[in-house]
Amino acid sequence: MKRLLPILLFLFPALAQVVVEPGWVRLVPPVVPDTAAYLTLVNRGRTPLRLVGAETPVASRVSLHRDHQEHNHQQHNHQGHKGGHAVLGMRPVPYVEVPPGGKVAFRPGGYHLMLEGLKRPLKAGEKVELTLLFQGGLKVKVALPVAMR
Amino acid sequence: MKRFWPAFLVLGLLGLGYLLVPRGSHSFFGTRLLNPKPVGFTLEGPKGPVRLADFRDKLVLIFFGFVHCPDVCPTTMISLKQVYEKLSPEERRRVQVIFISVDPERDTPEIADQYAKAFHPAFLGLTGSPEEVQEVARAFGVYYQKTAYRGPGAYLVDHTATTFVVQGGRLVLLLSPDKLNFAQNPGYLPKVVADLRALL
Model-level pTM? Predict the structure, then answer.
């Protein structure tokens, strides 16, 4: 045990570095094979934290997405405002970085974890287990409730 | 008594003036179109063709989206459900929410309708052939394009996320996706409800 202590002390700050404030998994119509998960990541450490992926038993794949709404008219005329209306879309992102002492909220209209290829329809109120994968090998498990919101 | 007559006259005129003030003095949260544009379409519903003109006596809320859309579309659809549920049963009878899929390749009329009805059983989901959808989108000034293409059946669609409000065959009000993002702005819900009530 004594020999393990330094290792434990070394591991502990890493575990304390990330705090996950739970959000929810969106209840979608049964005809929809994908859904989104929302939560807030808090970085209590002194180094940047990078979320690089996630896993869940209920979907075949989880990817990180960010909604975008481009306002640039000249460059990419196929995005942004068309005829005065906002054109929205979303894009996969390779990672989400949380600065030291900062937080990133995953919310509708911003970042979300996309649960692709649901293996079964989700039910309102059930908890979905999600394992968040951070750069450096840190894994954090969370359980998010399913809700239509 | 006689000397009060001028006062009665003034009060009477004030009362008359109050009655004559236009009742449309509601200040709209959405974008009110002062020169309402006539719009119309025929698309496929789960039980055959549906025309916008079928809902001439209703206030019609139209949202263009696609079923494989996990963030933007449900955010607006959930908000439309919340707005609809805030209305009285009598008001609801005069409102129809329509979801139009701009992804007819993957969404059949049945799928589009099941999707809409999962948010509220009174909602309606429609789509059409790619040409029909394109024509309707053009009439409403809706833009959509496939992106993040990973293969047949695995792609996303960027699209105009405005909710269009149609009354008597004319486009009267626009609600931007920000104004219908109650997840981020819960205070917007009563404002949107007030807009609909002002039109009803």
Answer: 0.80
